[in-house]
Design a protein that fits this description.
heterodimer, A: alpha+beta, B: Rossmann fold, seven-stranded mixed β-sheet, 10 strands, disordered N terminus
């Protein structure tokens, strides 16, 4: 049950679906902060300085990975699951993470 | 110890002493690395500080049937970007840049296999070092119980390293690790070779950092697939506990309850133990005095060394209880949640959630707090944390507060029977320290430590039950660090102070009256500076001596006023103080102790942790200035 999300960018159908030939960087205005709890999304790109991205990269949060907000902290900051690990972020950071929905990828 | 060579293993030529093979233990935080280290080396490890390096590493010798090896336990790291001191040290050790420690001849890598992929990502750069490596999969029992799967042999084949499972808690699977270490010992140290370079971004690759990680992720993914890794189900208990602990309403309440519990433990449960230690020091000091001949050495030993070092050891029970709680909170996984809950409010004042633990520790003692600040990932945040930690009311201030409050604040009910004037004063002093910390952090982040807003990222591990063994080893380790760091400096300062009370010698060759001693004269030198605060030279001597440790002033004042058995409860000392201080200058003295950095041990630890004199000097000056102004204002107004 390893997650093929890095190599495959599923389109249209089920989240664990087909293989797209070229994972292109899409323009999307959807941010991690816009995603409701328990919805799985794919990370598209970061809009923040490199030195702030690196800690995220080290923990496997990189373009192509699946993120799922599982909870909000008492202060309203997101806690997301990535690769079976729970990560707490600040909403400022989450607001700089561009994501796309799997289901909404349909036209 | 090679005399016990096991059958089948030929005795190798023993390498010359001092060149034992070095094995480095590497792993992400929370991967069971230190538990494994402790099980391998027992309590024979030592905490080492290498010159020029500000971080302690744990080094332990291990005798194997094929010879002795040295094991280095490196701090848990999330990567090799050298964003944190811990990462820098890990890198330096692996690259062989530490003086007095050869580059490792082999590696033992611990990885929590319930989080195999993210954890492998962290350590992937070390796999490429090409030296003998054993990958130890920890938490394998949890992987099975949560329906995960992993084929170790195929993982080993793919990564090109040896793989074994070990349950560090039960001790299962340790034999495989020992066998590996025995092979290392058998091979002996590797020949000299060029320093490897470890970094997040592979050398010679002009890749953007994102791509470098994408590549690492691909390697890890493929390894996982090859090893038929199946990720375990989410831990149901963790989910249930988190729904309370991170709840909008209950979460902060649980947090508050935990903080109150820790405070309660430090301040009430520790008291009988501290009284016991104090009594033991007094009794043993008396015994030493009785067996030694009456010469100056006896005075130095009993009045200088024993009393001075004893005044620090008294705080050991408190520090141990604090670390017991911190250990439970960390091992169970709650500390990560507490950091998340605290982050938002701490962020507003210029700190962050990871600073919660250091600042909580600072209520017992600033020294462990400053050391704990290493876990703060952002360097500016770490400096801010270190800078404000000494404002937290450490236990060394308590005896001073107790003496002055008892002498000058009349006990009257304030809020019915619950809160009296004395308790309210004490609370006020705590609040004043915390307020100073908050304001200082706020100003610091807008001036000296200005920069982009820091980021905060916290992994929330599954809840686990702390084991008594791991808690015990943690306490043992902290005891050693505390006694060594505090003991050496306190020892030095108290010896110097004692010496200053002994010179210049009188005509009869005996010690001078205190007023004429070097220390007394120093008090008179500072008198003009402290006169506006309402103090005379006697308080001046007290303030100078309290540089060793704040509570030393109580004993010094006792000596100056010639009060036998001086202590914070001593009525004689309180009476004498009331003759020399009025309410304004007494409250001023309290405020002085809230702010001033009267602790050379803290200054010394700061110098180490910030690698220079700039920060400690700045901090000492700033806190002293604040203390003087506060005391002056109180003296002028009251």
């Amino acid at each position: 049950m390893t997650d093929p999300a890095t190599e495959a960018v599923p389109t249209r159908r089920a989240p664990r679906g087909g293989v797209h030939p070229q994972p292109s960087v899409e323009r999307t205005d959807l941010r991690l902060t816009d995603i409701s709890l328990d919805e799985v999304v794919e990370l598209v790109r970061f809009e923040m300085p490199d030195d702030q991205i690196e800690p995220l990269l080290e923990r496997g949060v990189l373009p192509g990975c699946r993120l799922c907000p599982v909870r909000r902290s008492p202060s309203g900051d997101p806690i997301v699951e990535v690769d079976g690990v729970m990560l707490a972020l600040r909403r400022e950071t989450a607001g700089c993470i561009c994501v796309k929905r799997f289901a909404a990828a349909a036209d | 110890m090679s005399g016990t060579t096991a059958s089948g293993v030929a005795t190798p030529p023993r390498p010359p002493s001092g060149t034992r093979p070095v094995v480095a233990l590497v792993g992400p935080p929370n991967s069971g690395k230190t538990t494994l280290f402790n099980q391998l080396t027992g309590l024979r490890q030592k905490v080492a500080n290498y010159p020029g390096v500000t971080v302690e590493k744990h080094v332990g010798g291990l005798a194997t049937p094929a010879g002795d090896i040295e094991i280095v336990d490196l701090p848990g790291v999330n990567g090799f970007s050298t964003r944190t001191l811990d990462e820098k040290v890990t890198r330096d050790v692996l690259e062989g840049r530490i003086e007095g420690l050869r580059a490792p001849d082999a590696l033992v890598l611990t990885v929590d296999c319930t989080r195999l992929e993210p954890q492998l990502m962290l350590v992937e750069p070390v796999l490429e070092l090409g030296i003998p490596t054993l990958l130890v999969l920890t938490m394998a029992d949890e992987l099975t119980s949560r329906q995960g799967e992993l084929d170790d042999a195929r993982l080993a084949e793919r990564l090109g390293v040896e793989v074994t499972r070990a349950n560090a808690r039960s001790g299962e699977g340790l034999d495989a690790v020992r066998t590996f270490l025995e092979h290392v010992a058998h091979r002996g140290p590797m020949p000299e070779r060029p320093c490897p370079v470890i970094s997040n971004v592979p050398q010679g690759m002009a890749l953007p950092v994102v791509d470098a990680f994408a590549e690492r992720r691909r390697i890890v993914r493929e390894a996982g697939e090859h090893a038929r890794y199946r990720r375990p189900q989410p831990d149901a208990d963790t989910r249930r506990i988190d729904s309370v602990v991170l709840h909008r309403f209950w979460g902060p309440l649980v947090f508050l309850a935990v903080v109150i519990l820790v405070f309660q433990a430090i301040f009430t449960w520790a008291v009988p133990f501290m009284d016991g230690v104090e009594a033991a020091i007094a009794v043993s000091g008396g015994w030493i005095a009785s067996v030694l001949p009456d010469i100056w050495l006896r005075d130095l030993l009993v009045d200088g060394v024993w009393a001075g070092v004893g005044s620090v050891i008294v705080f050991l029970p408190q520090i141990l209880i604090l670390f017991l709680f911190i250990g439970i909170l960390e091992d169970s996984g709650y500390m990560a949640r507490a950091a998340v809950i605290a982050d938002r409010s701490m962020y507003r004042v210029g700190l962050q959630g990871r600073a919660f633990l250091p600042l909580l520790s600072a209520y017992a003692c600033a020294i462990p707090a400053i050391l704990a600040a290493r876990t703060v990932e952002d360097e500016r945040d770490r400096m801010a944390t270190i800078f404000v930690a000494p404002f937290m009311t450490c236990s060394a201030r308590l005896p001073v507060y107790a003496l002055l409050i008892a002498a000058f604040i009349p006990e009257r009910p304030l809020l019915g029977p619950v809160l009296g004037t004395r308790a309210a004063t004490l609370l006020g002093l705590y609040a004043l320290g915390a307020l100073a910390a908050v304001l200082t952090a706020f100003v610091l982040k807008r001036t000296l430590l200005r920069g982009k807003p820091s980021s905060f990222l916290m992994e929330l591990p599954p809840y686990r039950l702390p084991t008594p063994k791991s808690l015990f080893l943690r306490l043992w380790d902290r005891t050693g660090v505390f006694l060594k760091r505090a003991g050496t400096i306190i020892l030095g300062v108290t010896v110097v102070l004692w010496f200053l009370t002994q010179v210049p010698r009188g005509i009869d060759g005996g010690p001078p009256p205190l007023e004429q001693s070097a220390l007394g004269q120093a008090g008179q030198v500072v008198e003009p500076v402290i006169a506006p605060l309402g103090y005379d030279w006697k308080i001046g001597v007290g303030l100078i001596s309290s540089l060793a440790a704040r509570e030393v002033i109580v004993g010094t004042l006792g000596t100056i006023y010639g009060v036998e058995d001086a202590g914070e409860d001593s009525p004689g000392l309180q009476e004498r103080l009331r003759q020399d201080l009025d309410l304004g200058s007494a409250v001023g003295l309290l405020i002085f102790f809230v702010f001033a950095l009267q602790c050379m041990s803290t200054v010394a630890v700061m110098r180490r942790e910030t690698a220079g004199w700039k920060w400690p000097a700045l901090q000492f000056g700033y806190m002293l200035g604040l203390a003087w102004l506060g005391a002056w204002a109180a003296n002028a107004l009251l």
